[in-house]
């Protein structure tokens, strides 16, 4: 490359980084006619990155079906750049099996490659192979004017003024990578313990206990957890599922078929005793294992661009519960009831068209809406009840842990029945509407339209938590394994509103819903760290933060300040410094930035936020190069 070439450094070469590379390649022919070098910098392989690398336990699986995962834009994506369609993970598998797509697949994956279907849940290592192939596809599609250079290293610093070349300093290197623009594709940031977590860690150190703070589960060293040891797991989401796998089947236990669809767990004897609890006291809902049975509901309908524009035009800041939730709930309800009426007319008393007309006229939380639904949907089990969904154990008290275990086990069985039986496909209608709502909220968040209290507590807190609980749960077989582990006595339940305290040389836990306390020698926070720039362990984040060149997002309302913990960026992802200035040569985006990109893979035909952001950033950078 000649000295006149422009250079872009992408810090982070996982799915988001190579997704940005694809958008750069797609937009170069239109926007930039010169030579271009793109530096991909990551200590992990480009494509899979850290989370999806091949070198992890073969027992760990995706929480999405192959048909629901894509790295390619499609005709629903509303972006200025060209659409370049390609295979979903399911279509890639079929193409590789048929010899229509050339892919260098590790021999350890060949059996899975032959057996996986569009609706089963593949291993993360198979997804790693798909990402390897996608990265190779992007390289093959590059214009001749674009050169990609890979640096297997960690970025420790970036220096340079806002109007000149940036020096990107790498671990173990004396010379920097020089770039006109740097883009940090930020995933979930590792963080030092919070004050509460530090106290628990100190208690463990002083008393010979073990405390594991929030972290990415696949990276944890769990070898010190002894067989038969009592372990508290605080969290009942996806991190718990990974811990459940690694500490049971990963220790040599095995599952065999039981009566009906059940499983039986055969312990190896190397397992610890796992006591699990959380705020809700139940696991995330299983992923739906069926397609829609009726025609898809037109989405968005009640919470789309016109409604968002009206909200943005209001002079006052908005509250989620007061201003957004009535529209959000109506949109989710529309997805749910549209599928119920379209696919299961024997369980309703009106035609879809008549119900839709009446539904459109009414406010979600009105008595008239409640009356319409009650009259049109006779079965209470077919009505959408957000309060019961959100806190299924709310108000319940159990005489002992046996009663709690029986109740939660029946709850899990009922959830599996709904998520694996297409008679309940209305749940998938709600799921798809949730995805639509998620995308619309992003516009209000990036415009800073919400009150700080609502943003931090209601959106970043309750809404993201509810979304994950309802829509981002594990495949059904993981819950069936959980039932088998409960039956075997390996997993035991703490209860809802779980509390933990460090007490007299031990960890003690319990729940206000069930009498008694549990004593343990290990406490594991079964969740990822919350966003926190101030406590981030990444050397680049820490260095830039200490110099004031990167700041933690703080939302202000009068004299009150609310921190979100995220990296502050502009709407387009420009990095903002301590003086409030946007750096013209530095960008950052991802779930731990203020633009709050989704952390999950893109579902096809959903006009995905991540694709739109990638395209907008790529076009902004290339346009500046003219």
Automatic annotation (TrEMBL):
<protein>
    <submittedName>
        <fullName>FAD/NAD(P)-binding protein</fullName>
    </submittedName>
</protein>
<dbReference type="InterPro" id="IPR038732">
    <property type="entry name" value="HpyO/CreE_NAD-binding"/>
</dbReference>
<dbReference type="InterPro" id="IPR052189">
    <property type="entry name" value="L-asp_N-monooxygenase_NS-form"/>
</dbReference>
<feature type="domain" description="FAD-dependent urate hydroxylase HpyO/Asp monooxygenase CreE-like FAD/NAD(P)-binding">
    <location>
        <begin position="9"/>
        <end position="188"/>
    </location>
</feature>
<dbReference type="Pfam" id="PF13454">
    <property type="entry name" value="NAD_binding_9"/>
</dbReference>
């Amino acid at each position: 490359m000649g000295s006149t070439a422009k250079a872009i450094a992408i810090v982070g070469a996982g799915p988001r980084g190579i997704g940005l590379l694809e958008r750069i390649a797609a937009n170069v022919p239109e926007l930039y006619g010169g030579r271009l070098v793109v530096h991909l910098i990551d200590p992990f392989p480009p494509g899979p990155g850290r989370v999806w690398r091949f070198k992890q336990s073969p027992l760990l699986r995706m929480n999405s079906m192959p048909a629901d995962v894509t790295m390619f834009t499609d005709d629903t994506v509303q972006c200025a750049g060209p659409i370049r369609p390609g295979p979903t993970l399911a279509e890639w598998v079929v193409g590789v099996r048929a010899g229509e797509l050339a892919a260098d697949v590790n021999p350890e994956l060949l059996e899975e490659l032959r057996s996986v279907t569009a609706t089963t849940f593949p291993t993360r290592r198979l997804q790693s192979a798909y990402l390897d192939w996608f990265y190779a596809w992007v390289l093959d599609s590059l214009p001749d004017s674009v050169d990609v250079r890979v640096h297997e290293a960690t970025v420790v610093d970036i220096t340079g003024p806002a109007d000149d070349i940036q020096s990107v300093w790498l671990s173990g290197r004396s010379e920097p990578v020089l770039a006109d623009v740097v883009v940090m594709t930020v995933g979930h940031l590792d963080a030092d313990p919070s004050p509460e977590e530090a106290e628990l860690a100190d208690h463990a150190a002083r008393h010979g206990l073990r405390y594991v703070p929030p972290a990415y589960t696949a990276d944890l060293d769990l070898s010190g957890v002894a067989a038969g040891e009592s372990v508290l797991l605080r969290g009942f989401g996806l991190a718990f599922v990974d811990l459940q796998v690694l500490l049971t089947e990963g220790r040599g236990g095995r599952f065999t078929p039981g009566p009906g669809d059940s499983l039986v767990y055969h312990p190896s004897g190397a397992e610890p005793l796992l006591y699990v609890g959380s705020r809700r006291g139940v696991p995330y809902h299983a992923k739906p294992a069926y397609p829609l049975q009726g025609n898809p509901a037109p989405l968005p309908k009640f919470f789309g661009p016109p409604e968002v524009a009206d909200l943005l035009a209001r002079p006052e800041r908005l509250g989620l519960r007061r201003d957004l939730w009535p529209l959000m709930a109506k949109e989710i309800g529309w997805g749910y009831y549209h599928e119920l009426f379209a696919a299961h007319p024997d369980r309703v008393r009106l035609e879809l068209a008549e119900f839709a007309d009446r539904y459109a006229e009414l406010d979600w939380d009105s008595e008239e809406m409640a009356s319409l639904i009650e009259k049109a949907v006779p079965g209470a089990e077919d009505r959408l009840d957000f309060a019961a969904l959100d806190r299924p154990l709310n108000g319940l008290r159990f005489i002992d842990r046996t009663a709690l275990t029986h109740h939660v086990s029946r709850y899990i069985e009922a959830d599996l029945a709904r998520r694996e039986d297409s008679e309940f496909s209305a749940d998938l209608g709600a799921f798809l509407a949730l995805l639509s709502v998620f995308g619309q909220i992003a516009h209000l968040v990036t415009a800073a339209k919400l009150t700080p209290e609502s943003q931090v507590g209601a959106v970043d807190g309750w809404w993201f938590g509810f979304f994950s609980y309802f829509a981002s749960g594990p495949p059904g077989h993981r819950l069936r394994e959980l039932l088998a582990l409960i039956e075997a006595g390996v997993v035991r339940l703490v209860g809802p509103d779980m509390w933990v305290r460090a007490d007299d040389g031990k960890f003690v836990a319990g729940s206000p819903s069930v009498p008694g306390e549990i004593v343990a020698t290990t406490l594991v926070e079964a969740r990822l760290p919350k966003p926190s720039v101030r406590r981030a362990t990444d050397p680049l984040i820490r260095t830039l933060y200490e110099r004031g060149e990167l700041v933690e997002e703080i939302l202000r309302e009068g004299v009150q300040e609310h921190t979100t913990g995220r990296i502050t960026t502009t709407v387009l992802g420009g990095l903002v410094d301590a003086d409030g200035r946007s750096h013209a040569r530095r960008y950052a985006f991802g779930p731990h930035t203020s633009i709050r990109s989704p952390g999950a893979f893109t579902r096809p035909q959903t006009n995905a936020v991540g694709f739109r952001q990638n395209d907008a950033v790529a076009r902004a950078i290339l346009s500046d190069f003219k």
